[in-house]
Design brief:
The protein has 537 residues and is of the alpha/beta class. The protein folds into 3 domains: 152 residues, Rossmann fold (3-Layer(aba) Sandwich); 220 residues, Aldolase class I (TIM Barrel), CATH 3.20.20; 67 residues, no CATH class. The chain is built from 21 helices and 20 strands. Helix 1 links the parallel strand 1 and strand 2. The chain starts with a strand and ends in a 12-residue tail after the last strand.
Amino acid sequence: MRCLLINPFYPLSENPSPPLGLAYLAAALEKAGIEVEILDFVVFPYIKADFRSKLEQFNPDIVAATAVTMTFDRAIRIIQEARRWSPGCLTVMGGPHLTFCAEESLKAYPELDLVVLGEGEETIAEIAAEAGKGRSWRHIPGLVFRQGESIVSTGKRPHPIDVNTLAAPARHLLALGRYRALGMPISMTTSRGCPYACIFCVGRKMVGAKVRYRDPVKVVDEMETLVGYGFCQINVADDLFTANARHCLAVCDEILKRNLKVKWTSFARVDTVSLKILQRMKDAGCQAVSFGMESGNAEILKTIRKGITLSQVIEAVTLCNQVGLLPHGSFILGLPGETPETLKETLAFGEKLKKLGVSYGFHLLAPFPGTRVRQDSAELGITILSNDWSDYHANRAIVETPTVTRRMLDDIVIRWEDDFNRYLGLVAERMAAGEASEAEAWPLVNLERTVAIYDLMMENALEKLGDWTIRSQADGPADLLNDLADHLASSGGADREKRVSVLSHALENGFLKYAVTAGSIQWKWVDRITGRIEAGS
C-alpha cells in the first residue's frame, strides 16, 4: 500500500514552513506499514509532466492533499490531475477548508472520493487499511464520502486524539533543506486545542475546545532534534502556547535543565501572560511572542468574542519589554461593527503600540467556512464580496460593512505595504552609499537572498542545467561557483555579482552542494536533512 501526500502551492509572502500537519499524517501512515512520499509544491514547482511521472513511478494507491481555504483551488486541481493519470487511485482531501466544505466539494468535484474531518492521523490510517479491502467507509468515523447519488457523513470522531500517542512527525520525508535555505523557521507543537471562541477563527471547531498537552520531556526531545537541523528558529505553532501556565513553565524548565541553546517564538493571548511566564520563556530562548490584538476598538473586541481589553494589550506589551521579548501584534480590519471611526482607532492604537516597541501588521477579514462570521454574516452586518477561494489570503478586502468599503480597507493595507517598501528603498540607498550598518542592512540582504534562492528553486534552474564539464580538476569552490553563475546567466534575474554572493552563501551554509564525477559537475539543493548539514560537496 502506497500513499502520496500533497502540499499545494502558496506564495513565499505567506512565510511558509515545512508542512507539519502532513508530517504527522505521514508518520501515522508509516506506523501502519504504509509506504509514503510527500510532494511539496510550496518549494518545488508544479510541473504537470513531472507530476505524471511521479504517479507512474510511485503508483500510489492513495493520493491525499491538505488545503486551507486559499489553497483549495490548487489542491483540487492536483486531485483532478491525479485521477486523470492514475484512475485507480483513491483520492482524499482534508484540512480546515474541507472539514467545513465537505459536502459541496464532493458534489462539485467527482474526482474527489473522500473528505477527512478535523484531525486526520487516525482517520487516514484507517482509510489506508480499508483501501486494500472492500472500500466500505461507513464504519470509519471522521469521513464524508459519495455513495451513489448521496453524500454520506460518518460524523466527527468520538474522541480527540491523545497527542502523547502520536508518532513523531515524519520530517525525513520533507524537503527541510529548501526551507532552511530560504531562511524560514521550522515549526512544532506542544499542544492541540483552543478554549476560546473568536467568531472569525475555526481553530476551536477544528481541533476542539479542550487543550491537550504533550509531555514536556517529549516536547524538548523534539526541540533538541530540531536544533540539530540548523534552522534560524523554531516556531511553537500551538494555537495558544500560554493557555496553561503549568505546561508553559514545564516546557521552559526542561529547556533550561538541559541548557539547550535554542531560538523560538510562540503565540499567546494578552490575558494569559505574566511577568513570571514571559521571563521564563525569555530565559529558555524565546525571542518573540505574537498576540492577536485584532482591533483598537473595545466594542469590536466584544462583538468578535475576543475576550480581551485594550488595557490588557498595553500590560502584556509592557511585560514583554521588561523581560526583553519582542512583542508582535496582529490586527484584523473589516470585522463586524467596523466603521471609518473604528479604523482610525485601530490605526492610532497601532501607532501607540509601535512607540512601545511592538512590531505589528494587518490582515483583512476573510470569512472562512466554518466561522460564525461567515455563517451569521447578515446578522453581523458583513457583506461577503467573493466566494472565489483563492481570494481568501487576507491581504485584500473581500468583505464590506455598512460604512466601510473594500476600497477603504485595501487603501490601508496598500499604504502600509508602500511604507515598508519605501523603508527598504532607503536602506538600499544607504547601503549603496556605504552608510548602512550591518544590522540595518541585514533585513534587506536577507530578503533579497531569500527571493533569489526561491526564484532559482521554483524555476528549476539547477535542474535544467544538468551536468557540464569543469574547466580544471584543480578548480576550487570559488571557481566552481563563478562557473555556475555563468551557466545561470541565461535565466536573467539578479546581476552576476549578487548571484555569486547568493550562491556562495548557499554553499557555505550547506544549502547547496555539488558532486564532481569524471570531470563533470552537478549542482543540487540540499533537500533532505537528518541532522546538521556541513557545507560543501
